[in-house]
TrEMBL record:
SUPFAM superfamilies: NagB/RpiA/CoA transferase-like. One of its GO terms (molecular function) is CoA-transferase activity. It comes from Acidisoma silvae. This is CoA transferase subunit A. SMART domains: CoA_trans. InterPro entries: 3-oxoacid_CoA-transf_A, CoA_trans_fam_I, NagB/RpiA_transferase-like. The chain crosses the membrane at residues 20-40. Keywords: Membrane, Transferase, Transmembrane, Transmembrane helix.
Length: 234
């Protein structure tokens, strides 16, 4: 059966349901699966728990799911660019589970590797450790963190082939490869779609075995969160 689908909506057909756990790739607005996020919005599923580095910005990225109040909980390491997120959180309309960024990355990697939990020194003695098991190893205290394995991962890649093998471009790789391994189903949107055998095997970052569905983007909207410029020299 072909993994390639004609649209993001078609690629997600039959995979979405209320109250599911979705991993969404990207860092800030870099490497985010914008088309797939838009398709999730169109589907209207609610009560979602989203695992992502951030919650996007107002009206962009995961921010569009906040507008429709489809997100129940965010598991993130940073949410500071989104005013709507702040408003919903302060109104008790949205839950947040903060993770140190390295801890979040390792929780996802562990989930993809079948590791249910691990110990880390990061967060010990802070609010991050509240309610969690702690243990001493070699004279240092550690916090136990659970691995994350979701119902669905939506990711963005630079190049893909019809077998689902993926290549990412520079820093747009970020959380995408580890999330591809850490869900029951992974759907990838790609900027370029190639036939099998077109990639040097050493360049493939995500093997196709992790990817169930793939969609080629007609256009890619790459935004910059904060643009800093300087005046031209005279």
């Amino acid at each position: 059966m072909s993994k390639v689908h004609a649209s993001a909506t078609e690629a997600l057909a039959g995979l979405l349901k209320n109250d599911m756990l979705i991993l969404s790739g990207g860092f800030g607005l870099c490497g985010i699966p914008s088309a797939l996020i838009a398709a999730i919005r169109e589907a209207g599923v609610t009560g979602l728990t989203i695992v992502s580095n951030n919650a996007g910005i107002d009206g962009v990225g995961l921010g569009v799911l906040l507008e429709t109040k489809q997100v129940k909980k965010m598991v993130s390491s940073y949410v500071g660019e989104n005013k709507l997120f702040m408003q919903q959180f302060l109104a008790n309309e949205l839950e947040i589970e903060f993770n140190p960024q390295g801890t979040l990355a390792e929780r996802i990697r562990a989930g993809g590797a079948g590791i249910p939990a691990f110990f880390t020194r990061t967060g010990y003695g802070t609010a991050v450790a509240e309610g969690k098991e702690t243990r001493e190893f070699d004279g240092h205290w550690y916090v136990m963190e659970r691995g994350i394995f979701g119902d669905l991962a939506v990711i963005h890649a630079w190049k893909g082939d019809t077998e689902g093998n993926l290549i990412y471009r520079k820093t747009a790789r970020n959380f995408n490869p580890m999330m591809a391994t850490a869900a029951k189903a992974t759907v990838a949107e790609v900027e370029e779609l190639h036939e099998p055998g077109g990639f040097d095997p050493d360049h493939i970052i995500t093997p196709g075995i992790y990817v169930q569905r793939i969609v080629k983007l007609d256009a890619v909207d790459k935004r910059i969160e904060q643009r800093t410029t300087r005046k031209r020299a005279a």
